[in-house]
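Entry 12.
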Amino acid sequence: MPGLIKFPTFPADVPTHPLLVIDYTLLKAGDHDELDKFWKAATELGFWYLKNHGIDHEVNAMFDLGAQTFALPAEEKVPYSYKGDGSSFGYKPIGTNVIDEKGTRDTTEAMDVAQDDVLAYPKSVHHTYPVTVRENMNSVLRPFVEKSMEINMYFLSIMDDRLGLPQGTLAGLNKPEEPNGGTVRLIRAAPAITPNAQTFVTAHTDFGALTLLHNRLGGLQVLVPGVETWQYVKPLEGHIICNIGDALHFFSGGILRSNIHRVIPPPKEQAKLERWSLVFFTRPNFNAPLRPLSQHSTIIANAVVHAPNPGKFDTGMTAGEWLAHRNAATRATKYKDPSTWKASFKGTEDREILGVVEN
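Predicted 3D structure (tokens):
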């Protein structure tokens, strides 16, 4: 489903969770009401829609690139697979990951391109990629990455201000000049053959700082605080679905929320189509310690002091170690048993995921 192909609309009778809609042009203009709404979204659920972002052209080009890449024969993709269990760069064949405590293999195909590799091209920093990716590094990937970075860096500048941090603090932990886990991810999931087809991506919190999701079909669900059922997030044309990741939760002493979410087959008629997604992850520099920035902000320091479990925010890991740890926990090659999987896969979830009512 690349580019601008038409697809069935999201069914009106399927319940959804209404995310706040943030207007990027108003944010850039310093509109106080829009800034307050952004902060509400970032601290209460950690998810929001973004409109008037100005990257629709780049997004469509990326979907077309995804179609070209996944159409390649296996022998032109598999040699570029992830290098190791903790790696998140390269090609991911179907069945690479497990999606539940039973060890069930995933059914999605993905291509993860490192932000570092895009910006350094033709130099290879982390990985090499199939011919379709290499040929479009400068014409397609770089414009998408640069505009996505600009959006997320602006979000971080707002967060600096609201958290009482010196301007540039959070951006300094996500420098494009330093090795980091920033990633462009293209994902393709097959049509759901049966109504009870398995989960595409298991319930989780995101590993990094900020996520920008572009999708045209439903499937994303969030677990809203205080609610015991999964709720769909309806894709809106021209809107990015944005969310906070674990790193910002740690840096802010829990003020910024990294919320549980998952991906299942789209509802009803949409389930009959391939589900394509495009994601941009801003992830901190590999050497950044994942702990609260209390020494730079009294707001964060106070939040940590009054947290029910203040010690949980100091991971004892760098961002690179956290990313490798969380990546490895998803790999089928690392699966041992249900209890080990649940313990190793855990992110910043503040509630038990098992037993939540299916919607």
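Annotation: The radius of gyration is 19 Å. The chain has one domain: 21-345.
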